[in-house]
Amino acid sequence: MSRGDLRLFVALDLPEPLREALMDVQDGLGVGREVPEDDLHVTLAFLDGQNPQVVEVLHDMLSAIRMVPVRLTVKGLELFGGRRPNLVAALVEKVPELAALQEKVAQAARMAGIDLPRRRFRPHVTLLRFPGALSPEGRERIAAYMAAHGDIALDGSEAVTFSLYQSHLRAGGPVYEALARYPLTAAG
Ligand code: ATP
Ligand code: MG
Fold this sequence. Notes:
Order of helices and strands: EHEEHEEEHEHEEEE
Bound molecules: adenosine-5'-triphosphate, magnesium ion
Radius of gyration: 17 Å
CATH superfamily: Cyclic phosphodiesterase
């Protein structure tokens, strides 16, 4: 990322009931750096560092997306990072509406000239991050919580917007700034 570039990503905004349910999970885990309630999201496309000039055309492309709301259902928790876990995420069911929206967003980014790597979309909401190494106590706590609640199912409400965010990386954690928000409206 060069000087002056903006760190951008596009994400689905979570409905209030799901946010609240996920905050309860976060409280139960009680380890690491918690993602603030207002920052909970499902990343649709991580765009990395982009020249500020692409923002306008990207915004036009994203504004043109006409897709329906996405029902968000959480099915299980997962520790990401393999042998060095760095976060806990709630896995989101990849329903057709969500897969289709993710593809549209990726297409919009490419049409805006962004070179987006092709990777499998695994929709999730990051709940906690472990910026440093996890202590043995932390590991135990997570293992116990996952054993008890790792198969959690939260039957979701609908996401009705997605947003373009700029991420400002700070020592205490990232600050996400919403640059624009886009509606998902019922068909018909
Ligand atoms: P931090 O990196 O300080 O832990 P963060 O990951 O929340 O914080 P960003 O790195 O700016 O902040 O990421 C913004 C969003 O994009 C997050 O949802 C993150 O998971 C996702 N993301 C970041 N990097 C990638 C990547 N290389 N591939 C896919 N998604 C990514
Ligand atoms: Mg990151």
